[in-house]
Amino acid sequence: MPRSVNSVASRRRRKKILKLAKGYFGRRKNVYTVAKNAVEKAMCYSYRDRKNKKRSFRALWITRINAGARIHGLSYSQFMGKVKANNIELNRKVLADLAMNNPEAFKAIVEKVK
Fold first, then answer.
1. Which of 20, 45, 98, 100 could cross-link with 106 by S-S, CB 3.0 to 4.6 Å?
2. Where are the domains positioned within the chain?
3. What does the DSSP 8-state code read for residue 2?
4. CA separation for the pair 6, 59 (Å, rounded)
5. What number does CATH give the domain 7-113?
6. Chain-wide mean pLDDT for the chain?
7. How far is residue 74's CA from residue 110's CA, in Å, rounded to a whole number?
C-alpha cells in the first residue's frame, strides 16, 4: 500500500509561516526553514515586549507625576503617599494625564492632599 502524505496540510503550514515572514530581508522572507526561525524569534520578542510596554508606560507616568508634583513642592513618593492616605482612587495613568494636560486639576489634587 502506498504511503499517504497530506501535502495540503504541509503546504498550508508552510504558507502560514511565510505569510508571517512577509517583509523580512533576504532569505528570511522566502526560504521556509530560515523564515520559521525568524518568525519564532519574532514571536518571542513580541511576547516579551508586550510585558515591557506596560513597564515602560508605568515609568513614563511616574516621571510625569513626579515633574507635576515637584512644581508644587512635593516629591513623587510624598505625593503618592498622601494620595493613598486621603483615599483618592486615581491611578498613575490618570494622574499623569492630569499633570500633563490639565495642570489646574492636578493642582487641585495636590492642594487637597497637602
1. 98
2. 7-113
3. P
4. 51
5. 1.10.1900.20
6. 95
7. 9
Give the E-state strand segments of the chain in sequence order. none
Note the pTM of the prediction, 2 decimals: 0.77
Helix, strand, coil proportions of the chain in percent (round to 5)? 80, 0, 20
- Report the alpha-carbon distance of residue 67 to residue 100 in Å, rounded: 9
Spatial separation of the C-alpha atoms in residues 97 and 79, rounded to whole Å: 16
108/110 Cα distance (integer angstroms):
5
Residue showing cell 510585558: 51
Residue 81 cell numbers, joined:
503617599
**pLDDT at res. 55:** 96
Whether the CB-CB separation of 74 and 100 falls below 8 Å is answered with no
Q: How far is CA 107 from the centre of its chain?
A: 29
Residue keyed to cell 510596554: 53
Neighbours of 73 (CB within 10 A): 10
Of 49, 40, 45, 50, the residue nearest 16 (C-alpha)? 40
